[in-house]
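Quick log. Single chain, no ligands specified.
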Amino acid sequence: MSLKGQYTNNKEGTARDVSCSNFGTIAGETVKHFTNYAKSPYEDLDYNLGILGYIGDPPKDGQFAYYPESAGFKLRVRCRGKVTSHQWPKSQYP
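-> predicted structure:
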């Protein structure tokens, strides 16, 4: 599937093909692709949205954290000081 890399330095990410064989890769690359179309409502950033590839909660409003954990892939978003998360269990991976 064709996805754009992360929006950074006030420029759209470059389109590239991403393999559909690894759900963690697809999920992480989809989050990066999303930065080309969404903008942080909290700050005027040169990278639109903060994307963090680690297991913890994002420290600032408007940031995303994603990580393929042992139980599945987890995405966390911080808005207005509250972190919301969703985890896709490995059993639901394509």
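The first helix runs from residue 23 to 34.
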